[in-house]
Each structure stands twice: as structure tokens, then as C-alpha cells.
From TrEMBL:
<feature type="transmembrane region" description="Helical">
    <location>
        <begin position="23"/>
        <end position="45"/>
    </location>
</feature>
<keyword id="KW-0067">ATP-binding</keyword>
<dbReference type="Pfam" id="PF00005">
    <property type="entry name" value="ABC_tran"/>
</dbReference>
<dbReference type="InterPro" id="IPR011527">
    <property type="entry name" value="ABC1_TM_dom"/>
</dbReference>
<feature type="transmembrane region" description="Helical">
    <location>
        <begin position="51"/>
        <end position="77"/>
    </location>
</feature>
<dbReference type="InterPro" id="IPR014223">
    <property type="entry name" value="ABC_CydC/D"/>
</dbReference>
<feature type="domain" description="ABC transmembrane type-1">
    <location>
        <begin position="25"/>
        <end position="311"/>
    </location>
</feature>
<feature type="transmembrane region" description="Helical">
    <location>
        <begin position="137"/>
        <end position="157"/>
    </location>
</feature>
<feature type="transmembrane region" description="Helical">
    <location>
        <begin position="163"/>
        <end position="182"/>
    </location>
</feature>
<keyword id="KW-1133">Transmembrane helix</keyword>
<keyword id="KW-0472">Membrane</keyword>
<dbReference type="InterPro" id="IPR003439">
    <property type="entry name" value="ABC_transporter-like_ATP-bd"/>
</dbReference>
<keyword id="KW-0812">Transmembrane</keyword>
<dbReference type="InterPro" id="IPR036640">
    <property type="entry name" value="ABC1_TM_sf"/>
</dbReference>
<keyword id="KW-0547">Nucleotide-binding</keyword>
<protein>
    <submittedName>
        <fullName>Thiol reductant ABC exporter subunit CydC</fullName>
    </submittedName>
</protein>
<dbReference type="InterPro" id="IPR027417">
    <property type="entry name" value="P-loop_NTPase"/>
</dbReference>
């Protein structure tokens, strides 16, 4: 990463955090003030004690009021500075964290699901969390130590130049060595093992997540040992990389200590002759001898801070690259004119996933007029879920979809999704209470509204049996509820959304006959007064919910027919292409 690129990243980061600049600046000021006061306290105390001792030995009079007052002042400033430093810098850090996380979430939300589909979700989110923490650390772990060290170096150089100019020249070289050359070397040398360590951490996160989610399969197929070996191999690689980084850090710290000792020896070598020649007083020499190690102590975190800066800039690069990814769907700037109906019309629809060799939807044509009830049947892979993704404005497509006569591209994605309620094949339930999961459909819903939706979704008995009722915790992805209960929760959620168009994706797939029958009643309630698109492999009993059937194959509608015609054929699975197509019923050209 070159200097221009690095400064560009830093500039962008600080521009992003501009709203917090006052808190950040206040934190820097108190941190610098506290550090300077601490070092000055040591130096002035050394000077004062020596002067007092010499005055006591020689019997000379000495003004001890001024230095004693100064020492008290410095002690107060140091103590207050440290207290305020913790208070203000940590408050500023938390503000930065909140700002960065909110900003990143705002950037990521429009990328889902199309642009995030290729990324491993756990790895992505844990990596992003680590990256955001690293960005926030630029302030606490890089900016503050660097600025404090700079202030200390300038202050120390000024004092030393006043007393021993030659020592000042040498000190400048030692400061350069410990604050610039040495950290630059450790940073450069640490880049390769640093990247290796980050890559290993990402891989370990993915493996740990896969192992936890798929632990039943690992046990069933006796693959636990193999999985553990993969984890062990990557852990070994990571340990090797960490060892290199630790060694570099140790060399960095030792280097700073060495330069500190060199500075002290230099001070004695130049100071003692000056003392002898009476051009330097003994208290001044003691002050310098105490000042230099204390100053170097403030520089000691610099190799680590520089290394942290390098790692943080890499994180910034990754975060900005993700945040700059254009969303798959561009949202229109203005709201569409109010639509008079909720007719859906699809013409020559084509959709292809990134890197996919063929079209998932290829010339699909379909109408769902307001109030119509249509089943979309077809074999696995025919493109049914892809049609759903296009309708919900999750993926870009070619061709045209209109809602209420207005092209979908003129609708805001959220407005489309407010008009189309979907009960997915495997609805996602959040690791939250039943109430919170239901309120996703209507954030302001009262408990009374929730109970009405629960009753309509035939969930009443289930909820009544829960000791904590609506406050029952559902668990990660609804792990504490059965498949049938999860679908009925999703149905209640869709009812609360109260959208005019309803899409059900395989609502009874994988359920036993009793659960499917209960669910059927919920679905009938849900479909009341709405347009209905039922996506399924097999129609079965669900045929009572719809009037027409569209058969989908290879990404397009192969035929359209009435339910009676479909059933007369005795079809339970997707039928072969018939000779006569009742396309008119579906307005399929
Ligand atoms: N995210 C994706 N990336 C690449 N290809 C995909 C993706 N999702 C689906 N496909 C492919 O697109 C085609 C249509 O898939 P789709 O999921 O729409 O079919 P489906 O009819 O809903 O299948 P099923 O009934 O099994 O759910 C398939 O060939 C599938 O492999």
C-alpha cells in the first residue's frame, strides 16, 4: 500500500468521522496534556530534590515554594489528565464505533442478498466486526499514541536543546530511530505474517461456524476428526505467523529501550563534562537524566502503533471496498405515482445469477391480476424462487415487470415489499422473542393485533401452551420451534404486514399430513381478499386455494391451465408439455 493510497484511506476515514471530531480532539488534548504533565513531573521533581539536597548540604537558601507549587500543579494535571483521558477518549471511541457500525450497516443493507450471496455470512460479519474494531483502534491505538509521542519528542527536544545542544542533535537521531526507522522496519517485516494471520483467522471462523452448524452431519458421517485436523492445520499456520509478529514486536520494544539507554549514556557523557566545566548545574543534569527515559517510555508504544496503523489501513481498504460495491438494484430517486391497482404483469423476464452459465429465468411471461389466485408449479430448478427474487427486487433482471401498471424499476424496493407479503419455504426466524419476530411484519402492532394474527395463523393453541407466551425466545433461526410452527409464525407475520399480494413458497413441503392440514386453514385465512401466487412442486390439497395453474419449466412458463384441467390430468408432479395450452386464462402469449 503506497503513501498516497494510505493517506487517501485515512482522509476518507476521518471525513466519515467528522461529526465526532470535537470528542476526538478533546480526547487527544487531554491525553497529550496528561502525558506531558507526567513526564514534566518526573523531571521537575528530580530537579527539585537535587537542588534541595545540594542546598541542604551547602546551607544555601532556596526558593522551594515555586517548584513545590509546580510539582503539585503537575501532579494534579497528570491525575486529572489520566482520569479525563480514560473518560473522554473511551467515550469518543464508543461514539466512533457506533458511527462506523451504523454507516456500514447502511451500506451493506442494499447489497443483500444479491451482492452478499457469494460471501460466507459468518466469516463476512465476524470479519467486518473485527475490521470496524480495527478502524476504531486507529484513534485509540494509533492517533493518540502518535500525537502524544510527537508532543513529548518536541517538548523534550526543546528542553534538551536549551541545556545541551549537542545532546539535542543526538537525541533527534535517536528519536528518528525509535519513532520512525525502527517502527517502519517492523511494519514492513510484519506485513506478510500479518496478512497470513488475518487470513488464518478468517478461515478458522468459517471452519468453526461450519463445524457448529453442521455438527450433526459431521458426527453422522464420522467426519469430526477430519474437520478437527483441518482446524489444527490452520491453527498451526496461524501460530507460526503470530510467532513472527511477536518476535518483531519484541525487537521493536527492545530497540526503543536500547535507544533510551543510548540517550541516557549520551546525556551523562555530555552532561558530566559540562557539569565539571560548570556550564551545567547538577539539578539540571539530574533533570535531563530523568527526562530522557520518561520521554522514551512514551515512544515505546510507537512500533506497535505503526504496526496497528498498517493492519487498520488494510481493514479500512476492505471495509471501503465492500461499502463502495454498487447495489445490484439501483433505487429510484423519486417515489412512483400512486398505483390504482395491484395487477402484476411480467413480460420477457430474464434473470441470470453472477457467474452462472445459463439463465435462471428465460423469457418468462405471466399475469397476476388483482385478486387472482394462481399456482406456479414446476420441477426443482425450474426458476420459481428466482421469479420471487426478481419480483421482490432482490436481483436485477431483463424484460419488464409492472405493478399496478408501473414498471418495478420506478418503485422503491421497500414499497414493493410492503405490497407483496411472502411466506418463504424456510422462513428465517430471528434469535429473539416470538413478539419481536412477529412485529417484523408491523413494528407498531399491539399485543391484541398479534393475538388476532396468531389466531388466524392457527397458532393460538401453541402460543397458549407457552409459559412465557409472546415473550418466548425462539432461538437462533427458530431452533426452538418445529418446522410447522415456524411456517405458521411466518404466516402470522405476513398477515400483520397486510399486503395486497401474497406469495407462498412451498408452504406445506416437508410437513406431515396433520400439520399440513392445520396450515392449510391458516393459508386460506391469509389468502382472503388478496392476490395469491402459490409456488410449489405439487399442488395436492392446496389446489383449493387457487383458480389457475401455471407450469414452469427451464425458466419460463411452459403452459397455463385451469385447476380442473390440471387435476383432470391427475398430475401430482410437473406434467409434460401438453398439446393444448390454455394460455389465454393466464394471459400468456
Ligand atoms: N444464488 C444463485 N446463484 C447461482 N445460481 C442459482 C442461484 N440460485 C438459483 N440458482 C440456479 O438457478 C436455477 C433456478 O433456481 P431456483 O431456485 O429459482 O429454482 P426453483 O424452481 O425455485 O427450485 P426448487 O423448487 O428446488 O426451489 C437453478 O439452476 C439454480 O441452480
Amino acid at each position: 500500500m503506497n503513501l498516497n493510497h494510505s493517506s487517501g484511506l485515512l482522509h476518507r476515514l476521518f471525513a466519515l468521522l467528522r461529526s465526532e471530531r470535537r470528542a476526538m480532539l478533546a480526547g487527544v488534548l487531554v491525553a497529550v496534556l496528561g502525558t506531558l504533565a507526567g513526564i514534566a513531573l518526573i523531571a521537575v521533581s528530580g530537579h527539585f530534590i537535587t537542588a534541595m539536597a545540594l542546598a541542604g548540604a551547602s546551607g544555601a537558601a532556596i526558593n522551594y515554594y515555586t517548584p513545590a507549587a509546580l510539582i503539585r500543579l503537575l501532579a494534579i494535571v497528570r491525575t486529572l489528565g489520566r482520569y479525563l483521558d480514560r473518560l473522554i477518549t473511551h467515550d469518543a471511541t464508543l461514539r466512533l464505533l457506533a458511527r462506523l457500525r451504523g454507516w456500514l450497516f447502511g451500506k451493506l443493507a442494499p447489497l443483500a442478498p444479491a451482492r452478499l450471496a457469494a460471501l460466507h455470512s459468518t466469516a463476512l460479519f465476524s470479519r467486518l466486526r473485527a475490521d470496524i474494531d480495527a478502524l476504531e483502534h486507529i484513534y485509540l491505538g494509533v492517533a493518540i499514541p502518535l500525537l502524544s509521542a510527537l508532543a513529548v519528542m518536541l517538548g523534550t527536544l526543546t528542553v534538551v536543546l536549551v541545556y545541551l545542544p549537542w545532546l539535542g542533535a543526538g537525541l533527534l537521531v535517536l528519536f528518528m530511530a525509535s519513532a520512525w526507522w525502527l517502527p517502519a522496519w517492523t511494519w514492513r517485516s510484519g506485513q506478510a505474517p500479518g496478512s497470513e494471520s488475518v487470513a488464518c483467522t478468517d478461515m478458522l471462523r468459517e471452519l468453526a461456524d461450519d463445524g457448529l452448524r453442521g455438527r450433526a452431519e459431521l458426527v453422522l458421517f464420522g467426519a469430526e476428526a477430519m474437520h478437527a485436523e483441518r482446524i489444527a492445520a490452520i491453527t498451526t499456520k496461524q501460530q507460526a505467523a503470530r510467532r513472527k509478529l511477536d518476535t518483531l514486536q519484541a525487537i521493536g520494544s527492545a530497540g526503543v529501550m536500547l535507544t533510551a539507554q543510548c540517550a541516557l549514556i549520551g546525556a551523562l557523557l555530555l552532561g558530566l563534562p559540562a557539569l565539571h566545566a560548570a556550564t551545567l548545574a547538577a539539578p539540571d543534569l539530574v533533570m535531563l537524566a530523568l527526562l530522557l527515559p520518561a520521554a522514551f517510555e512514551s515512544i515505546a508504544p510507537l512500533p506497535d502503533a505503526w504496526a496497528q496503523l498498517g493492519a487498520s489501513l488494510l481493514c479500512a481498504q476492505r471495509v471501503f471496498a465492500l461499502a463502495d460495491t454498487p447495489p445490484a438494484i439501483e433505487e429510484p430517486i423519486s417515489a412512483p405515482p400512486p398505483a390504482s391497482s395491484t395487477d402484476l404483469a411480467i413480460r420477457q423476464l430474464r434473470l441470470r445469477y453472477d457467474d452462472a452459465p445459463s439463465w435462471a429465468l428465460d423469457g418468462l411471461e405471466l399475469d397476476l391480476p388483482q385478486g387472482a389466485r394462481l399456482a406456479l408449479v414446476g420441477p426443482s430448478g425450474a426458476g420459481k424462487s428466482s421469479l420471487l427474487a426478481a419480483l421482490l427486487r432482490f436481483y436485477p433482471y431483463q424484460g419488464s415487470i409492472t405493478l399496478g401498471g408501473i414498471p418495478l424499476e420506478q418503485w422503491q424496493g421497500d414499497d414493493v415489499r410492503a405490497r407483496i407479503a411472502v411466506v418463504e419455504q424456510q422462513p428465517y426466524l430471528f434469535d429473539a422473542s416470538l413478539r419481536e419476530n412477529l412485529r417484523l411484519g408491523c413494528p407498531d402492532a399491539s399485543d391484541e393485533m398479534l393475538h388476532t394474527a396468531i389466531a388466524q395463523a392457527c397458532l393460538h393453541d401453541y402460543v397458549a401452551s407457552l409459559p412465557h407466551g409472546l415473550d418466548t425466545w425462539i432461538g437462533e433461526n427458530g431452533i426452538r420451534v418445529s418446522g410447522g410452527e415456524a411456517r405458521r409464525i411466518a404466516i402470522a407475520r405476513a398477515l400483520l404486514l397486510d399486503a395486497p399480494i401474497l406469495i407462498l413458497d412451498e408452504p406445506t413441503e416437508g410437513l406431515d399430513a396433520v400439520t399440513a392440514s392445520t396450515l392449510y386453514e391458516s393459508l386460506a385465512a391469509l389468502a382472503q381478499g388478496r392476490s395469491l401466487l402459490l409456488i410449489t412442486h405439487r399442488l395436492g390439497k392446496l389446489s383449493a386455494l387457487v383458480n389457475e395453474v401455471a407450469v414452469m419449466r427451464d425458466g419460463s412458463i411452459a403452459e397455463g391451465l385451469s385447476v380442473a384441467a390440471y387435476q383432470a390430468r391427475g398430475a401430482t408432479a410437473a406434467p409434460a408439455m401438453p398439446a393444448a395450452l390454455d394460455r389465454q386464462a393466464l394471459n400468456v402469449p
